[in-house]
Amino acid sequence: DQQVKQNSPSLSVQEGRISILNCDYTNSMFDYFLWYKKYPAEGPTFLISISSIKDKNEDGRFTVFLNKSAKHLSLHIVPSQPGDSAVYFCAARNSGGGADGLTFGKGTHLIIQP
Amino acid sequence: DAGVTQSPTHLIKTRGQQVTLRCSPISGHKSVSWYQQVLGQGPQFIFQYYEKEERGRGNFPDRFSARQFPNYSSELNVNALLLGDSALYLCASSFYTSGEQFFGPGTRLTVL
Fold first, then answer.
1. Which residues pair with A5 in a beta bridge?
2. How many CB atoms are closer than 10 A to CB B53?
3. Mean pLDDT lowest for which of A35-44, A98-107, B18-27?
């Protein structure tokens, strides 16, 4: 069973517009959420994170929103740039569960069109 | 500053063989985690080590083992390789067990 779900395998957005990537989770014990970006032949690169005690975190063009009641988070990229084209992974952690390994979604392939 | 490094970059093995993958964390990071990423999926957690001790283990068989050395580098061993072990193996390091994890480029393992 997938505890972290990214239901859109791909997303196409025009350059300069807003990209919104969505992520849902089922485990209510998750208390920390992260977004990673991955280019082919490279490891995932950390983008931004949010603790469950917050509902928003912003870093430059990237903003993550967390809706705990809906068990949903989203990553907003504004404005979208060609270099943003990559696979984006949502990940979650249960800090009280003993193992601090991250649980990842399957990823969303973001394509920024010129 | 050097990031997380992994070796080798690519590896081809046959079924039944054993493989050892290596990881050097970012300087100052004491925790190393290992993940397996098969095509079309997100990375799956295998192990986490902190200060040379195993702190967490994912849902992987006993054929998978790891260790961490005094310099915080780590090795992942997989015995009796199966075709399904073909994947990208990622290593991530962090200051503490609960810190942001920074990933290396991965080792691409192909089992024939």
1. A24
2. 9
3. A98-107
Cβ pair A100:B103 closer than 8 A: no
> Are the C-beta atoms of B9 and B108 separated by less than 8 Å?
yes
Nearest to B48 among A89, A101, A106 (CB): A101
Contacts of A91 in chain B (CB under 8 A): 42
Please determine, for residue B41, whether its predicted confidence score (pLDDT) is greater than 80: yes
Q: Taking CB atoms and an 8 Å limit, are A89 and B40 in contact across chains?
A: no
* DSSP per-residue letters across B51-101: TTEEEEE-S--TTEEEEE-TTS-EEEEE-S--GGG-EEEEEEEESSTTSPP
pLDDT at A12 over 60: yes
Please indicate whether, in this complex, the C-beta atoms of A32 and B98 are within 8 angstroms of each other. Answer: yes
Q: Which of B4, B48, B90 sits opposite A99 (nearest CB)?
A: B48
Residue B72 has pLDDT above 80, yes or no: yes
Give the count of alpha carbons within 13 A of B63, CB side only: 14
Which chain B positions have a beta carbon within 8 Å of A4's beta carbon?
42
CA gap B90, B87 in Å, rounded: 9
Structure confidence at residue A100 (pLDDT): 63
Q: Look at residue A45 in the predicted model and tell me its pLDDT.
A: 94
The answer on pLDDT for A96 being more than 70 is no
Yes or no, beta carbons of B42 and A105 under 8 Å apart: yes
